[in-house]
Design brief:
Its cofactor is pyridoxal 5'-phosphate. By secondary structure, the protein is an alpha/beta fold. The protein has 15 helices and twelve strands. Helix 4 packs parallel to helix 5 and helix 13 crosses helix 15. The structure holds pyridoxal-5'-phosphate.
Length: 428
């Protein structure tokens, strides 16, 4: 029997269960955890040949380890990418992909709607090194067009974005970016490789936080960068090898185990999220419900063209009930009995966060306003519980948020429902 998966065009579920494994001489069934910092050589000559590159042999786990390599090979096969490197966290992946490529004098164009730390890298870190950075509204092609009137070295964008679930038209932006000379980096955390394949729509590099859906059970941090063999070997690998954002082999193994069920977890979470979005859109305490496959989403057609399902996150605004939207949103969060308050996402457990006071506190009120995040905005990552239990928990929390209001204020607020369009329709 073969020790590795034969080279056939296997489907995603098969790649997730069996892809990437490289069995040792012990023929272990599950991937081995090679928890070792270094490797030994049989002779001085073998060590010399390894460093010359004429012999393939693991040297040091900062830049190569069999368990980490198994994860890289599984992710590359799933994404349809030539090569992959995994890192200690999603931010190590984003930071590595950018710093490996950029130099003083370069120009970076980014969509404004980025994960908080990605926003900090573009707005604060890169300018320190003499890199010019430009933010655009990712939904507005005219702003991208304007930004690419000057050459650019790199583009960073997220679609759907955190937390407002905005879409970027990938083929259109990639075409404009390439004409300006830029490498297009897509943070695909919210869509996962199962719902959206940026490399098939013009992206050059895809980055992930493996902490989210890949592990999916709240245990370890990890990240991944995927791209062409040439870019990964010549641009990314020297940076990773010499700066050391390396993942622990143990954490890589946990993520390998998590991936074996990604194709079962993500569609189930998407179906739950679509049902929750339909529920929230019909509630008077909720003034706006955002979900990419909801008919009321301004970019629903683009979402259905680029993604095979609407994703696992729903964002909604709790309406001001007369004492401020923040107070109303906090009452809802505090009344939840099942859903946890946590800033993680993509987990088996459903969790909510209030972006204005947590993940997006540091971007400041003006940038939050530009992003559309207000004091009533709540981001909900829908998990794998029975969706009826999640919906009942949300229902009782929305009810309680009104009842706990002082009597004089009770009837002052309550926005209008954003529409009761169905999100759970079939993919295009
Ligand atoms: C979580 C996240 C990251 C960062 O990943 P970490 O593993 O937490 O470092 C980057 N981008 C997006 C969209 C994320 O959700």
């Amino acid at each position: 029997m073969p020790r590795t998966l034969p080279d056939a065009p296997f489907r995603p579920a098969t790649l997730l269960v069996r892809g990437g494994q490289n069995r040792s001489s012990f023929d272990e069934m599950s991937e081995a955890v090679h928890l070792t910092s270094g490797f030994m050589y049989e002779s001085a000559e073998q060590a010399e040949d390894t460093f010359l590159g004429t012999v393939q042999h693991f040297q040091y786990s900062r830049f190569g380890n069999p368990t980490i390599e198994a994860l890289q090979n599984k992710l590359a096969a799933l994404e349809g990418a030539e090569a992959c490197r995994v890192t200690a966290s999603g931010m190590a992946a984003v930071h590595g992909a950018m710093l490996a490529h950029l130099k003083t004098g370069d120009r970076v164009v980014a969509s404004r709607a980025l994960f908080g730390s990605c926003h900090w890298i573009v707005s604060t870190l890169l300018p320190r090194y003499g890199i010019e950075t430009v933010f655009v509204d990712g939904t507005d092609l005219d702003q991208w067009r304007e930004a690419f009137r000057k050459p650019a070295a790199m583009v960073l964008l997220e679609t759907p974005s955190n937390p407002m679930l905005e879409l970027v038209d990938l083929p259109a932006v990639a075409e404009l970016a390439h004409a300006a000379g830029a490498v297009v980096v897509v943070d695909n955390v919210f869509a996962t490789p199962l719902l959206q394949k940026p490399l098939t729509m013009g992206a050059d590099v895809v980055v992930y936080s493996a902490t989210k859906h890949f592990d999916g059970q709240g245990r370890v941090l990890g990240g991944a960068v995927l791209g062409s063999r040439k870019w990964v070997d010549e641009v990314l690998q020297p940076f990773i090898r010499n700066t050391g954002p390396s993942i622990s082999p143990f954490n890589a193994w946990v993520i390998l185990k998590g991936l074996e069920t990604l194709h079962l977890r993500v569609p189930a979470m998407c179906a739950n999220a679509a049902a929750v979005a339909d529920f929230l859109a019909g509630r008077a305490e909720v003034s706006r419900t955002l979900y990419p496959f909801l008919a009321s989403h301004p970019q629903q057609a683009l979402a259905r063209a680029q993604m095979s399902a609407g994703g696992t996150l729903v964002t909604f605004d709790v309406a001001d009930q007369g004492d401020g939207a923040k107070a109303a949103a906090f009452r809802v969060l505090n009344a939840l009995k099942l859903v946890d308050i946590s800033n993680n996402l993509g987990d088996a457990r459903s969790m909510v966060t209030h972006p204005a006071t947590t993940t997006h506190m540091k971007v400041g009120p003006e940038e939050r306003a530009r992003l559309g995040i207000n004091d009533g905005t709540v981001r909900l990552s829908v998990g794998l519980e029975d969706v009826q239990d999640v919906i009942e928990d949300l229902a009782q929390a929305l009810d309680a948020s009104r009842e706990s209001l002082r009597p004089g204020l009770r009837d002052a607020g309550g926005g209008t429902a954003a529409g009761v369009s169905r999100a759970a329709g079939p993919a295009r």
